[in-house]
Design a protein that fits this description.
CATH architecture of one domain: 3-Layer(aba) Sandwich
Largest sheet: 6 strands, mixed
Bound molecules: adenosine-5'-triphosphate, magnesium ion
Structural class: alpha/beta
CATH topology of one domain: Rossmann fold
Number of helices: 9
Strand content: 15-25%
Order of helices and strands: EEEHEEHEHHHEHEHEEHH
Number of strands: 10
CATH class of one domain: Alpha Beta
């Protein structure tokens, strides 16, 4: 289980996350949607501690950290929690001087100290899972955006994280390439991968998510099943946002 309790994040005087409490069951997919600046990326970055919350509690499986303005969070604690997570970014962020398989092996070899052959076998298995086994030795620059993102997903999954965090995984991609990434994420969801993803892609959210959190102004304004949030939102802010998005795309949600 992933449990966030009263999470607050400030940048100086700017309170970006105000009071976020949510429980996420394992083997479920949660989509974070909402207007730009609402706090989606910051929330994801707080879960893997790329940003340290100002206050609140994060529980990720066995690991739990309580944050408070007068307590500095230790590096060991940060690493213990971060290792429970894998992160996928909008712009892939593959290591350009490593081949696809080397990218996937990297964390296993350097952080987890796996022997190379074991890491290579695991990486191959994951490249196969994301449909990239035919590009094992390709350089990132020679891959399409969709292919790069699928390698990035394999890399994030390599150490078997408890949760896969995805920040706008399809928004840098043309619709066709986005589709192949959606297919991979959908397959992972079907296999029981726990995922939290920020997305503007309502089609991705409605296809893959069990639960949608609508985030605005650093608060969860509304949450529920995709069907309810996208078709019969209750709060005015959610209604406005959904209608603005639906007007701008042709997706059937
Ligand atoms: N490192 C930072 N320093 C200062 N302010 C920040 C920092 N990171 C984010 N913010 C602020 O936090 C707020 C929330 O940003 P965030 O990136 O989480 O929004 P978002 O919902 O992901 O938006 P988008 O849909 O555009 O990706 C914004 O006002 C942003 O300017
Ligand atoms: Mg963002």
């Amino acid at each position: 289980m992933i449990e966030l309790t009263h999470i607050e994040k400030r940048f100086g005087d700017n309170v970006v996350l105000k009071d976020i409490s949510v429980t996420i069951a394992e083997r479920t997919v949660t989509a974070l949607v909402g207007p730009s600046g609402g706090g989606k990326s910051t929330l994801l970055r707080c879960i893997n501690l790329l940003e340290v919350p100002t206050a609140g509690t994060i529980r990720l499986g066995e690991e739990k950290i309580v944050f408070s303005p007068d307590k500095k969070t230790g590096w060991t604690e940060i690493q213990r929690l971060r290792r429970q997570t894998g992160m996928v970014f909008q712009n892939f962020q593959l290591f350009p001087h490593q081949t696809a398989i080397e990218n996937v092996m990297e964390g296993l070899v350097t952080v987890l100290k796996w022997p190379k052959e074991k890491a290579r076998a695991r990486a191959l298995e994951l490249l196969e899972k994301v449909g990239m086994a035919h590009k094992t030795d390709a350089w990132p620059a020679t891959l399409s955006g969709g292919q790069q993102q699928r390698v990035a997903i394999a890399r994030a999954l390599a150490p078997s994280p408890r949760v896969l965090l995805c920040d706008e995984p399809t928004s840098a991609l043309d619709p066709e390439l986005a589709e192949e990434v959606v297919d991979v994420l959908n397959r992972l969801a079907g296999e029981g991968t726990t995922m939290i993803m920020a997305t503007h892609d309502l089609r991705l959210a409605s296809k893959v998510a069990d639960q949608v959190l609508f985030l605005d102004g650093g608060l969860i304004v509304e949450s529920g099943a995709p069907k309810n949030i996208f078709q019969t939102p209750e709060r005015d802010r959610t209604k406005k946002f959904i209608s603005s998005l639906s007007a701008g795309n042709s997706y059937d949600i």
